[in-house]
UniProtKB/TrEMBL annotation:
Upper taxonomic lineage: Bacteria, Bacillati, Bacillota, Clostridia, Neomoorellales
Task performed by this protein: Catalyzes the conversion of (8S)-3',8-cyclo-7,8-dihydroguanosine 5'-triphosphate to cyclic pyranopterin monophosphate (cPMP).
Alphabetical UniProt keywords: Lyase, Molybdenum cofactor biosynthesis
Binding site for substrate: L76, C77, H78, M114, E115
PANTHER family: CYCLIC PYRANOPTERIN MONOPHOSPHATE SYNTHASE (PTHR22960:SF29), MOLYBDOPTERIN COFACTOR SYNTHESIS PROTEIN A (PTHR22960)
UniProt name for this protein: Cyclic pyranopterin monophosphate synthase
Pfam families noted in UniProt: MoaC
GO terms, biological process: Mo-molybdopterin cofactor biosynthetic process
Residues forming the catalytic site: D129
Enzymatic reactions: (8S)-3',8-cyclo-7,8-dihydroguanosine 5'-triphosphate = cyclic pyranopterin phosphate + diphosphate
A molecular function GO annotation: cyclic pyranopterin monophosphate synthase activity
PROSITE patterns hit by this protein: PUA
Domain Molybdopterin cofactor biosynthesis C (MoaC) residue range list: 16-151
Length: 167
């Protein structure tokens, strides 16, 4: 018999994992990534002077919406009932870096790592899209899981990185 928590069946064909026997627990995932740009572009974003409007407000909503649609975007990913999503930003004017952090929460049978990573990815792509007329050389970089809690596999914390305190 194949491992019940693999995406491959006994014949090696792709399938959605059956999580029906897993315990329902609170699960939280935090992901982070960044967009590298010129200091001038970051200044335009932060001063609300980007031609397409409020970049951070639109990117925040895009990230939240993406987290809610992850099951439709990522093959074999379970559609989840998400109880909370937040997308926050930390600019560094000295380096032209805009960091993005997403926190996603659910109570269910499978984790929300993919939802948090998707939220960061789509927020970063939205920033690029809204700013590309000013700067096409921006780089989306270093998208990664920072922390994951809940579920059978327990707690994961990326060494040397803590989730932001945004309360």
């Amino acid at each position: 018999m194949s491992n019940p928590l693999t995406h491959l069946d006994a014949k090696g064909a792709a399938r959605m994992v059956d999580v029906g026997a897993k315990a329902v627990t609170e699960r939280v995932a935090v992901a982070r990534g960044r967009v590298l740009m010129s200091k001038n572009t970051l200044d335009l974003i932060l001063e609300g002077e980007m031609p397409k409007g409020d970049v951070l407000a639109v990117a925040r909503v895009a990230g939240i919406m993406a987290a809610k649609q992850t099951g439709s975007l990522i093959p074999l990913c379970h559609p989840l009932s998400i109880s909370a999503v937040s997308v926050d930003f930390r600019p560094d004017r000295d380096t032209g870096t805009l960091e993005i952090e997403a926190r996603v929460k659910t109570t269910g049978q499978t984790g929300v790592e993919m939802e948090a990573l998707t939220a960061v990815s789509v927020a970063a792509l939205t920033i690029y899209d809204m700013c590309k007329a000013v700067e096409r050389g921006m780089v989306i970089d270093n998208i990664r899981l920072i922390e994951k809690t809940g579920g059978r596999s327990g707690h994961f914390q990326r060494e040397g990185e803590e989730p932001w305190d945004v309360s």
